[in-house]
Amino acid sequence: MQIGGKQLFWMILTMQLGMTILLTINPSIQTAKQDAWLSTVCATGIGVGVAYVCSRLSLYHPGQTIVEFSKRLFGRYIGYTVTVVYFIYWYSVLAIIIRQYAEFIVATILPKTPILVPMLGMLLVAIYVTFSGIEVIARCCEILGPLTLLGIAIPLLLSLKNVHINNILPFYVDTGAMTILKGSLPTSTFLGDCILLLVIMGFLAKPQDGVKPAILGVAAAGLLTSISTFLILSVFGHIASSGQTYPYFNLIRYISYFDFFQNLDSFVIAIWIISVFTKVSLYFFVCTYGTAQSFGLKKWRRMIWVVAPVIALLTLIPRDFIDSSVVFPQKIAIPYLLPIHGIILPLLMWGVAKLKYK
Question: Which of 108, 171, 192, 342 places its Cα 20 to 30 Å from the Cα of 215?
Fold first, then answer.
């Protein structure tokens, strides 16, 4: 199984774009108010930094995943511990992604549908595409990635006529640097999940061509999130925006030209589902392939039938929207997953690799 640099770019962009815009803008606005767009710019820098470190680290071990090169860096037992720490992250985040997707679908377009239906539907699709291998996921992203990009960018352009710059004034003075940085943490957590590169980079046909696409994918997703935040604030203001669970979704509903060109929210939901499909499929592939590698199974596809029931059970742990979209990000993802898995461990492994292979 091999993928190219162009495919890697679309995989990262498609994976991060939809959920980052939909789920992280509201927490940033609640913290940084009218300067939330500056927070998302800071988050873009953090995400690009994580992508750079993970991709450069993988260059020291071409054709290998973190399951293999962590043992080369730290030895058998410590390396295995590092692998387990990352798989705890990937399993838990995959379950939360599926749960957040199902709650959004039930809350917006299928209010009378049992939440198990969209959860199991997305999981079954991920099982099917994972069974076909990462090449199929990459080719899907080559086709669906440009559609996702246009589906996000075009509504933003149509929203320009509703902009009121006074809604984002004054800059900086009402919040300050520390508040802006604090507001960047929710978006940084989503952009920082490019640590999947520690596995995905092992499948690149030309590993040296993977650093730039990985960085550009994260940067493009972060830039569009910043533009979306800026437009939401300039249209609604920070007070109204902070009270909206999905402010981007409401921004799209606000678009109307001549009372004819309107109601674009259903179109945006379809684009968002594409992004969720990509993210769930990549996470599921990483969990399945990595777990099989950890147990030394060459026929890694057999692990699908073990991983799928585990993920299905994990999705049932959150009791409601508060647990999955408020408690998990604020109590687990921001204080633990982002600093440990996204920053400390990649920097540590990169430093050890540079010293060991100097």
Answer: 171
Give the number of other Cβ atoms within 10 Å of residue 50's Cβ.
Answer: 26
- Where are the alpha helices (H) located in 159-264, listed in sequence order? 177-191, 197-200, 211-242, 247-253
Contact by Cβ (8 Å): 352, 73: yes
User: What does the pLDDT look like over 14-37, one tens digit per residue?
Assistant: 998 888 888 889 899 989 888 999
Residue identified by tokens 């990352």 is 86
Buried-exposed string 54-87: b where 16+ CB fall within 10 A, e elsewhere:
bbbbbebbeebbbbebbbbbbeeeebeebbeebb
- Per-position DSSP letters for 103-160, written without gaps between them: HHHHHHT-TTS-THHHHHHHHHHHHHHHHH-HHHHHHHHHHHHHHHHHHHHHHHHHTG
- What one-character DSSP code corresponds to residue 171? P
Please calculate the CA angle 248-250-254 and round it to the nearest 5 degrees. Answer: 115
Chain Cα centroid distance, residue 123: 17
DSSP string, 46-95: HHHHHHHHHHHHHHTSTT--HHHHHHHHH-HHHHHHHHHHHHHHHHHHHH
Q: Do 150 and 17 form a contact (C-beta atoms < 8 A)?
A: no
Q: What is the pLDDT of residues 54-99, one digit of tens each?
A: 999 888 888 888 888 888 888 888 988 999 999 999 999 999 999 9
- pLDDT tens digits, residue range 130-161? 988 889 999 999 998 998 888 888 888 888 88
pLDDT, tens digit (0-9, with 9 covering 90-100), for 266-315: 777 888 888 899 999 999 999 999 999 888 888 898 999 999 999 999 99
